[in-house]
Amino acid sequence: MSKYVVAIDQGTTSTRAIVFDHSGRIVSVGQMEHEQIFPQAGWVEHDPLEIWTNTREVIGLALSRANITRHEVAAIGITNQRETTVVWDRHTGEPVYNAIVWQDTRTGPIVDRLAAEGGVDRFRETVGLPINTYFSGTKITWILENVPGARARAEAGDLIFGNTDSWVTWNLTGGVNGGIHITDVTNASRTLFMDLRTLDWDQSILDVFGVPRSMLPAIHSSSEVYGKAASESLLRETPIAGILGDQQAATFGQVAFGPGEAKNTYGTGCFLIFNTGTDIVMSRNGLLTTLAYRLGDAPPVYALEGSIAVTGSLVQWLRDSLGLVASAPEIEALASTVEDNGGAYIVPAFSGLFAPYWRQDARGVIAGLTRFVNKGHLARAALEATAYQTREVFDAVNADSGVPLAELKVDGGMVANDLLMQFQADILGVPVVRPVVAETTALGAAYAAGLAVGYWSNLDDLRANWAEDKRWSPAMTVAETSRLYAEWKKAVTKSFNWMEDEA
Asked: 399, 190, 401: which is closest to 279 by C-alpha?
């Protein structure tokens, strides 16, 4: 029996390959960051060719650090930054434009145009999503309308689209030499094009967006053998057997398989996913209805999601743009130099506000400044912004489900920050629990792939791997958390309508 599963985690800031053993523990990691491209305000891009080059290199790094070869790898799982849109030529493999990242807001005028008839919820009953700059659909339309020759090439069948899972899979399976053009249900559910009930592309919506169906990948389950890595790969002939969008992968890695189970991932953004089982639940409180996963031919499992655009990337901004800290981990030490936020609040609406507001007119603000506020207070306010935004989607999940969450499982890079995790427990009023393996996004992709090839037998095998590492319990009075949260809500209102004149 092969000893390991490899997960490729194509994220917003970096690409990683992680080798996992049967117990779900990390054996080795290869990781490379890619350039964040900001052509103008509100535009965020990545170079797809750089991402693919890095993918090949991190596979080599992970295998060499584990001292293994492809013969010891049972399967490959892929997870990815969702909604980030790549359009490329199926004959040459060349992208027609940079990848437009999920945070990008350039498609605001397209959103307004599409929402003019029926509002932003025009397609929500079918796809579970509002029309928003966040999702892939408006990004494809922008490329077709703004890249010279793109529409004619697309209508001739020469151009194809994918989120970065499709881009990596196509290249990994041979690219122009027989690469497979596919996606899974979780990524398809982030385009604005997939019918939640049929799990197929909705032609009437495609017609409204002006996107040829021939551009779209075939939709598969999240766990099945799709094909094998091509001969030029270090993992040649290894089955590619799992694909999950990053937040659904983290949910899978947290073994939140049952209705009512939830997790929150702290990364570039923050994403709380609540499993609703085989029921499609339309939110009344600003959440998204999405696919959680589908295993082979089994019925699909759905979820409610609270998507927050900016959390970890706020710390990155303080580091890279303001020079407040030299490295991201330093933010905790700086924030610990003060006892509280000094009355300052940062609302990081760099890409508008996602859940539960969905306000693309919003922009970031720092509120409550006085001469007393120093850089320690700003560092603390940045961390607290993550916790407050999580509280907002946590409250929305509780309102939609009718069954309040008793605790919150957490994962992602920011969960190493004890100050943040304690404040998160305080502001939620429930325990926050971190697993031993915090890299649950990659782990979920590995689990999906391993299940498809029999490396793991069933979901109970995966549940047995989960173990608690640390738990934070609320320590702040209800009166204090209520005061702080009310001030946060006031600060949020100051970010509204900033783009009103331009829109």
From this structure: 401
Q: How many residues does the structure list for the chain?
A: 503
**Sign of the C-alpha dihedral, residues 65, 66, 68, 71?**
negative
Report DSSP letters for 233-280, one per residue. Answer: STTTT-EEEEEEEHHHHHHHHTT--STT-EEEEESSSEEEEEEEET--
Residues 232 and 178: beta-carbon distance below 8 Å: no
What is the DSSP-derived secondary structure letter of residue 201?
B
Whether omega for the bond prior to residue 356 falls within 30 degrees of 0, making it cis, is yes
Q: Is the pLDDT confidence value at 2 over 80?
A: no
Task: Give residue for tokens 């720092």.
Answer: 366
- Which amino acid appears at position 349 of this protein? A
Mean pLDDT over each residue of the chain, to the nearest integer: 93
| CB-side neighbour CA atoms (13 Å) of 293 | 33
* Tokens of residue 443, six digits: 């782990």
Please enumerate in sequence order all residues whose Cβ is within 8 A of that of 164, keeping only pairs 6 or more positions apart, or say none: 10, 48, 51, 80, 81, 84, 86, 99
How many angstroms separate the CA atoms of 36 and 47, rounded?
Answer: 9
Q: Phi first, then psi: give them for residue 330, nearest 5 degrees.
A: -70, -15
pLDDT at position 500 is: 67
Distance between the two ends of the chain, CA-based, in angstroms? 59
Of 184-188, 242-246, 311-315, the poorest mean pLDDT is in 311-315
Q: Which of 262, 226, 268 lies closest to 246 in space, CA to CA?
A: 268
Categorise residue 2: left if φ over 0, alpha if ψ from -120 to 50, beta otherwise: beta
Q: Residue 173: name the closest of 113, 109, 220, 108 by CA.
A: 220
Question: CB under 8 Å to 454, separation ≥6 — which residues?
Answer: none
The DSSP code for 357 is T
Task: Report, in angstroms and rounded to the nearest whole number, the Rg of the chain calculated over CA atoms.
Answer: 22
Cα 439 to Cα 302, 434, 494, distances in angstroms: 22, 11, 35
**35-62 tens-digit pLDDT:** 999 999 889 999 999 999 999 999 999 9
CA pair distance 11, 5, nearest whole angstrom:
19
Query: What is the tens place of the pLDDT at every residue in 192-203?
Result: 999 999 999 999
What's the pTM value of the predicted model, to 2 decimals?
0.88
Average pLDDT over residues 399-418: 88
Chain-centroid distance, C-alpha 172: 21
**Is the distance from CB of 101 to CB of 81 less than 8 angstroms?**
yes
C-alpha 9/C-alpha 31 separation (Å) is 9
The reported pLDDT for the residue numbered 329 is: 87
Q: What 3-state class would DSSP assign to 24?
A: coil
